[in-house]
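pasting for the record
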Amino acid sequence: MEAKKIPVMETDQPSRINRKKDYFTKLQATMMIIGTLLISLIGGYFICDKFVWTDKNQSRLDEQIAYYEDMVSKESNKPEHRINLGYSYHLKGRNDEAVKQLQIAIDLDKKNVGGYFNLGLVYNDQKRYDDALKQSKKAVELAPKDYKGHLLEGMIYRKLKMYKDSLASLEKANKLMPANTDIIFEMGKVAEDQGKVKDAEELYKKALSYDPLYKPASEALTKIASKDH
């Protein structure tokens, strides 16, 4: 049976108010997500292992978590809500809860790239590198033209000391997104891990030439300089 749209009467003021409130609630949630993503992007999308969260940012993140917890309770079968909640848990350091939500999201939609990608990020943070690699490979399989999956895969290969595979993945990412500071920095990390300090320095400096405020590269150069003395 085809669903019929119920006409809204001009006198239906409460419904209009509810829709307006719902609109602003969604708008606020969107703004919180954008704000949080901007915070996580500072100093590198993947690379920045530490970030000093202010009380204000923590409060916004708590509001974001509460919003998506509510959305999951209302629409539990929508994987997007669970992915957003899982990512928010991850930013809060609640990785076990993040894994649970992301696994459910994947169960709901086996082809949702975001589920695999974010689960890979969380596993990487937990140092579960074999599990992280499986998720990154799935993300690459589903979205081969998205550089982020290749970048994550390259990062994990490096941590597994599979340097040849790491560079192969990073080169694919670089072709898809040239001049990306995260990719260049990660190539530098591969060189440094292999003892190719001069090559690493050049790559870190190259990353800084694209973004002089890119903190991971400047910190890496400072660390190398301190070892020389």
